[in-house]
Design goal:
The chain is mainly α. Helices cover 75% and strands 0% of the residues. Helix 3 packs antiparallel against helix 4 and helix 12 runs antiparallel to helix 13.
Length: 300
């Protein structure tokens, strides 16, 4: 039997891990944890489901999305980031696509252990991961739709899944509303992530918001999109008689606004800095809301 070049030059496990981008796994894992907390249920005997859910949200579904994205973005990455595993040749041939398909299948197998709602949420996330990057839909061709899909997959779906696997009933509407609001805010986070690839996106015809609006206008838009949903969250917490939680989210939002002022003075250069500072405040606000929902008994 003659081995194909792809079979001979299998990528090293460390390079496959690099393709799956562990640094990107934190947001959906955190959102899943927020869902678990917001359920108000005791982990107790459900801890295997929690572990499976965290693995599904991060290494599996998010890892799949990274592999799919890098495969279909290999030509853009050759311009923007030629050192990445696929354009650099460290993942040769069609191995990138093979890994993306294999990780999709493994994600579905793991999701099957989380019940109907957990499996359904995983299916939605995986479908969006492929639609985001793969033609002919390729949602990322348009920053409005692509960032919305990313925000939902990184925040809303994992949060819903975390709450769903902890209870027998469906998550309460208040939890769904909070998860959706933070998903909307994540649209702005995704916009900041697009600043690093303006040249390649422009040359390859990808209409990210920095390309469509220009870097400065896109930065202002991202800040508003991140801030306004949190203002709605504060209003809801006050309406639900949870003033201490509302004060905590307000303080975290105030810190973000102060950081945004500096971000807007040089958004392209300072976006990575803001991701490590302002976004930390953003996700802490998510956890505050999760505890607030738990105190309400948000899932009946």
């Amino acid at each position: 039997m003659t081995l194909t070049p792809d079979a001979i030059h299998r990528p090293a496990p460390s390079v496959v891990l690099e393709l799956l981008k562990p640094i990107t796994w934190f947001p959906p894992m955190w959102a899943f944890g927020c869902g678990v907390v917001s359920s108000g249920a005791s982990v107790g005997p459900r801890w295997p489901l929690v572990v499976a859910g965290v693995l599904l949200a991060g290494p599996m579904v998010c890892g799949t999305s990274q592999a799919v994205n890098d495969w279909y973005d290999r030509h853009v990455d050759a311009i923007n980031e030629p050192g990445r595993p696929i354009p650099s040749g460290r993942i040769p041939g069609r191995w990138g696509l093979t890994i993306a398909i294999a990780w999709t299948a493994l994600s579905l197998l793991l999701a099957a252990t989380l019940g109907v709602r957990g499996f359904s949420a995983a299916v939605v996330g995986l479908v969006l991961a492929w639609l985001y990057s793969a033609p002919p839909v390729r949602l990322k061709q348009n920053g409005w739709w692509g960032n919305a899909a990313c925000g939902l997959c990184y925040e809303g779906l994992p949060w819903f899944t975390g709450a769903a696997v902890m209870t027998a009933g469906a998550p309460d509407a208040r939890m769904v509303i909070i998860a959706l609001l933070y998903s909307i805010g994540a649209h702005g986070i995704m916009t900041l992530n697009d600043f690093k690839s303006v040249e390649g996106d422009t040359r390859m015809g990808i209409d990210s918001l920095p390309v469509l609006l220009g870097v400065d206008r896109a930065a202002h838009f991202a800040c508003w999109v991140m801030a306004l949903p949190q203002l709605v969250v504060v209003t809801l917490l006050l309406n639900w008689q949870r003033p201490l939680y509302a004060i905590a989210v307000t303080a975290l939002l105030a810190a973000q606004i102060l950081l945004m002022v500096r971000l807007l003075k040089g958004p392209r250069e300072r976006a990575p800095w803001y991701n490590g500072t302002g976004i930390s405040c953003y996700v802490l606000g998510m956890l505050v809301c999760a505890f607030a929902l738990a105190s309400l008994g948000s899932v009946e």
